[in-house]
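I'll show an entry:

:::
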Amino acid sequence: MSPKALSAAVLCAAVVLGLAGLAAPAATAAPAVKSDFNGDGFPDLAVGVPAGTADGRAKAGFVHVLWGSPDGLGGSSSKISQASSGIPGTAESGDRFGYAVQAADLNGDSYADLAVTAPGEQIGSSAGDHQGAAYVLWGSARGLTSGLTVAKGVADQQLGKLVTAGDYDGDGDRDLVLSVQGEEGGATVLRPGPLTTQAPLSLVEGYDFGGARALTSADFDGDGTDDFAVTYKGMESSGTRVRTLASGSWRTTWDASDSGTALAAGDFNRDGRADLTIGEVQPDPEADGTYCEDRLGGAIATVYGAPGSTLGGKVTCTTQSSPYVGGTAEAGDNFGASLVVADLDGSSDDLLAGASHEAVGSAAEAGAFWELEAGYDGVFTGPSFSQNSTGVAGTAEAGDHFGAALAAADYDGAAYGDLVIGAPGENASTSGSTTVSSGGVWYRPSAGDHPRLPAVSLTPAKLGLDGAPAYGGVLGK
C-alpha cells in the first residue's frame, strides 16, 4: 500500500540502523551520551554491518562509522573490523562482528565508546563452536582505535544478539546487559562495570523456550538509577518487564503480558517521567487481555509514567488506522518493528517508527517510517515517509526494507535531532539462488534547524564500500 502523505514536504534526511540517540531529559532516561567518538563536538553514527566482508572473510562483519560535522553525515567515514589495528579479536568468516552496537561513555573519560557484539565468534576449539563475544571500542581524539573483549559466550549458548547500557547498580560505572540464546531458551546477563577490567557475567533473568527480542534502559521509577526493560517471547509465555538492581538484587518493578519486537524510552507527554513504547505489540495467548485490540498491520503501545511508580500511567495504542497517522493498515506491514526517540523541534521527545514491510504502491516490502508526536493526552499523530515521498532520494522498490532500522542525533551540531533511516535491501541483485543487497542509509537534517532539505542517501558506493552486503543492517543506539 502507499503510505498517505499528510504533509506535502518531506522532512529532511536521514535515519540509519542502530546508532546513538538524542539526549533524553536527565530526569527521565538513562544519562544521555552523545555518540561523539572523537570528541570534536559532533555526534557520529555507527552502522553495524554483520554480513559484510572483512579481511577477505565473508560475514566476518565490520562497523562503519560516519563522522558528524557541521555539514552532518557523509563527509568522512571509517571502516572498523577485527582486522583493524588495535581492535580485539581476529576477523573470521561468520563472526558477524557488528551484529549489535551501543554507544555510551563506558569508561568516564567524556569520549563516547562503542559496545559491539559478534554472536558468531568462535570461542571453543571445535569447528562450529560459535558462542559469541562482546567488545568495547574506546573513543579518543583519534576515534575508535583500541578496544577490549568484555564478555564471552559459553558452551550451548550464543551471546550478543542484543545489548543495552546503563548504570544499574548505582556505583557510577556503566554496565552492559546482553542477550544469550540456547537450544531450550534464552536469558539476559549482566556484564558489570567498570568495563576496563575483566569481570564475570551474571544472570538477570531467563526465558524458557524463548528469548529476549528487544532491550532498552532508562530511569523508569525516577530514583536516579538506571533500570532495564526487556520484551521477550517464547512457546509458553511472553511479555515485557522493567527490572531494577537498585536494592542489590534484580527485581521486577513493572510487568505486562504483551510483547513486541522493539522498545524505546522517552518523555513523550512532557511530564518529566520516563515512558515506554512497545513496537509491533502482540498479546500473550495465555493472558486475558492486550493493550492493542486492533493490531492489523502492527501496533505501538505506549505506557506512560506516573508519580511514585514505574510506568503506572495511562496506555495508548497507535496504528495506521489511528486518526491523523499516515498510511493504511494492511496485514504484514510490521508497523513499529523499529523505534527510536528524538527531539526534532525542541518541544518534546518524538517517536520515530519504522515498517520495513510496508508496501508502497505495487512495491511489496519497500518500507516506510513515521514521525510521531504525542499530544498532552498521550495520543500520537504524524505523517509517514517512503522513498516515493517528496524530498527523499531514490525510488521505493520491492524488498528495499526502508525503515528497517532508525537512529537520531544532532549530527550537524545545529540544535535538534537529525534522522538516519536504514534500508538493508536497497540495490538488491540476484545471482543464481542468492540475493545480495548493498543496502544504504538516508540522512535527513532536522526541520527544526533548517528548511526542509532533501533526505540524502548514503550507499556503500558513495562511501567507498562497494560490494558490502546488507550495509543498512544495524545502527548503534
In short: DSSP finds no helices and 32 strands in the chain. The chain has a mean pLDDT of 86. The first strand starts at residue 14 and ends at 15. The two ends are 30 Å apart (CA to CA).
